[in-house]
């Protein structure tokens, strides 16, 4: 039996719909700087996966956070790590590969 924590997922369409309705979700993009420069969901908080543990102080434990990466693998690891630390998280299934909404280019 796996000890892997079950992480709730949210689809890119659901995230886009919530943004379009004016919901100010906390979206944390864990991709590398070069990846985010190519395009990111508007309003994200960028914390590369390798910096996550050192930057926990930037993440509000009282809010739910949506984790994003290119394909949802790294964000899944980030979500598991944050959940183990007591954070409320969801992983965006399919990652930016499945994102059809607006992009900010940094």
Automatic annotation (TrEMBL):
Q: Using the record's annotation, list all stretches that form the Rhodanese domain.
A: 21-104
Which SMART domains does its entry note? Answer: RHOD
Q: Which UniProt keywords apply?
A: Transferase
Task: Provide a Gene Ontology MF annotation, just one.
Answer: transferase activity
Q: What is this protein called?
A: Molybdopterin biosynthesis MoeB protein
What the entry lists under InterPro entries is as follows:
GlpE_sulfurtransferase, Rhodanese-like_dom, Rhodanese-like_dom_sf
PROSITE patterns listed in its UniProt record: RHODANESE_3
What Pfam families does the entry give?
Answer: Rhodanese
Q: Which top-level group of life is the source organism from?
A: Bacteria
Annotated source species: Alkalihalobacillus alcalophilus ATCC 27647 = CGMCC 1.3604
């Amino acid at each position: 039996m796996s000890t892997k924590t079950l992480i709730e997922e949210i689809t890119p369409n659901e995230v886009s719909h919530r943004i379009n309705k004016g919901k100010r979700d906390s979206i944390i993009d864990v991709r590398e700087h070069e990846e985010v420069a190519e395009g990111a969901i508007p309003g994200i908080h960028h914390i590369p996966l390798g910096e996550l543990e050192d930057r926990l102080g930037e993440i509000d434990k009282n809010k739910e956070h949506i984790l994003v990466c290119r394909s949802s693998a790294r964000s899944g690891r980030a979500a598991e790590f944050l959940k183990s630390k007591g954070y409320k998280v969801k992983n965006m299934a399919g990652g930016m590969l499945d994102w059809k909404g607006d992009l900010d280019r940094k």
